[in-house]
Design brief:
2 helices, alpha+beta, five-stranded mixed beta sheet, single chain, 18% helix, globular
């Protein structure tokens, strides 16, 4: 439905009370700009909530996901760091699976 060419994950936690404007400001602070057709992912400190901001080329979309049990497999906090994901890794992440182990084409690359 929405074209997404690049998926970026921020390692610094974000306050999940943030709305669209605050999330957009955070994207600009961490990634330098909100580029069209890119998705930007943020989690809270406990990594049980996630927000995704997408710039579709016309406007901004903000979505939230919460896990009732467990937590997302989020990389350790490295101030100002970001990680690029592919579509398969994103699917694993939103399901609460260890996305770091998913390689291109769904191949498990390490145990």
């Amino acid at each position: 439905m929405i074209r997404i060419d690049s998926i970026w994950l921020a390692t610094d936690p974000m306050d999940m009370r943030a709305g669209t404007e605050t999330a957009l400001a955070r994207v600009i602070a961490v990634f330098g700009a909100a580029k069209p057709h890119c998705a930007y992912l943020f989690a809270n400190r406990r990594a049980n909530r996630m927000k995704v901001l997408v710039h579709d080329g016309v406007g901004i979309w903000l979505a939230a996901r919460r896990l009732n049990q467990g937590r997302f497999f989020w990389p350790g906090v490295r101030h100002g760091s970001e990680v690029e994901l592919d579509a398969e890794q994103l699917q694993a992440l939103v399901l609460g699976l260890p996305w770091q182990r998913v390689g291109a084409g769904g191949i498990i690359s390490m145990l």
